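USER:
Before I trust my own judgement here, I would like a peer's view. Write it directly below this note and I will take it from there.

ASSISTANT:
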Amino acid sequence: MKKIILSASFAFAIIMGVNAQQTPAPVAAANPNQADIQFEETLHDFGNIKEGTQATYEFKFKNIGKQPLILSDVHASCGCTTPTWPKEAIAPGKTAVITATFDSNGRPGVFNKIVYVTSNGKTASVSLNIKGFVETTPQGQPPVVQPVQPKP
């Protein structure tokens, strides 16, 4: 009988511990003056490009907040894509660009690359995407290395 009562008490204690409600941590109030980043677009399709091309696109953005915007980290999903970005703070209402350059040399076929942007804005993380198709260079011919600018 003692074993049954002891076992039931132990099971009850476990059930109560699992079902115990925890007080949620207080959520910090949003700063209405905080910086925020807004991109004109977050996806660019290069279409078909020749192998060896350095395909470059500029993602334009604006600080739509009321405090300076600081990009703390910008990096690509792989080594074949190189982002460049402003290192200085972007004043409220001002625009800037993040440039993504894809090196297609030796990478025939479909590509879809991501540039990750982290900032002090309300929207702290944004993903920028570039995609397209790299046409293989015919055998016996060296790849044509030329920059590709975005279509207007």
In short: Helices lie at 2-19. The CA atoms of residues 1 and 7 lie 10 Å apart. The longest helix spans residues 2-19.
